[in-house]
Amino acid sequence: MAYATTNPYTNEVVATFPEATDAEVQTALAEAHAAFEAWRDTSFAERAKVMNAAAAILRRDVDKYARLGTLEMGKLFEESKAEIILSAEIFEYYAKHAEALLKPELLPVADPAEGKAMLVHEPLGIVLAIEPWNFPFYQVVRIIAPQLSAGNAVLLKHASNLPQCAAAFDTLMAEAGLPKGLFRNLYAARPHTAMILNDPRVCGIALTGSEGAGTVIAGIAGKALKKATMELGGADAFIVLDDADVEKAARWAVIGRHWNAGQVCVSAKRLIVADAIYDQFVALYKEGVAALKAGDPMDPTTTLAPLSSQAAADDLRDQVTRAMDLGAKVEVIGAPVPEQGAFFQPLLMSNLDQKNPARHWEFFGPVTQIYRAKDEADAIRIANDSPYGLGGSVFTKDEARGTRVARAIRTGMVVINHPLSPKADLPFGGIKNSGYGRELIGLGIKEFINHKLINVVDIDAAF
């Protein structure tokens, strides 16, 4: 079966689910379109009731949903709970702000006699969401909350190792009062992506996934002339300048690299440290990683989770071996991890000079790349020497300096004196091979919207 729950802590296959049939996909499309035709004219107040209800259910049943996330992809239970609360906050954000974000806009015209021009923002139809496994709930909510609030319908193709989390969304949205058809989880097979995107009732696709998946899906969407947003990989720079608080920066680096077992697009994957503080920082970083405890992700004392699957751990191990063959130096850091389950030993990787192409790779797990920067300019150079451009961090005691460096980094998001982590009221997205488009706040809700011009002109006005 393509869709299966396999507990990464035990490698036990818990449940399997059959793929959707062509007929089921066609039924979902027909029901979604019929529901959209009514939903598009439903008031923002009525849509907000559904969003607030979904948020309340997530808050009420936070432990239930968090257990599913931990069961299916292995993240720490406390991290799973935080993800559920963040998802509730996103629902609440759009319940509160959707109407204002999409209100008609009057446009200034050079000559009032030329007309009264305005932009109105109207929903377009069905959005296909293809979402990954590393944030089973947040990744989905950051699409469905804005798109349903805007008046669109959404069909979900979730990661194949998260069938129970995916199904939970059907139950959640039905209980929240969403009309039937407006959202549906589909255990879609690969050919169904093209089938869905080629349907004229579908207006576009939102993908979060790998760079390789983005290339394929963007090609299908482009051929079908459908709008796409792509949130792909990242190899975020974590810059520590010579005037930073080294102890605090090192502690944040440990957290920024190892939360969700390092399986985060905006994880602090590349530590770029000023020469003057490099040795001190590395010693503190190793000490912090050594304090991590790998084990049962449901145990509150565990601080390092397994990877999402044994296959993910094996692939990462192979990638590290290839990097070493190209000249990278790898040092084992941290305490030994359990042999059972999809655990991966934290590693520190160096000697990634311009001759080593591994410096351009994304390591999705607890593998840290570290670079020694001569000065501020060199740190910026190293940060920008990447095909990715998703997020990043800058540590310094000088706010103006931090802002200057942040502006010089070619990426979609930069946080000063903190690792980058998603928030309900901040935009998310990147550039270069990290994708295009934005999610959350007003940017996200307007991605699959018709920004229609309406201009009222005097019939006797000049042409």
TrEMBL record:
List residues of the Aldehyde dehydrogenase domain. 3-453
The UniProt entry, under InterPro entries, shows: Ald_DH/histidinol_DH, Ald_DH_C, Ald_DH_N, Aldehyde_DH_dom, ALDH_GabD1-like, GABD/Sad-like
Give yes or no: UniProt keyword Ligase: no
Annotated GO molecular function terms are:
aldehyde dehydrogenase [NAD(P)+] activity; succinate-semialdehyde dehydrogenase (NAD+) activity
**Is NADP given among the entry's keywords?**
yes
Q: Which keywords accompany this UniProt record?
A: NADP, Oxidoreductase
Would you identify the family this protein belongs to, as annotated? Belongs to the aldehyde dehydrogenase family.
Q: Report what the protein is called.
A: Succinate-semialdehyde dehydrogenase
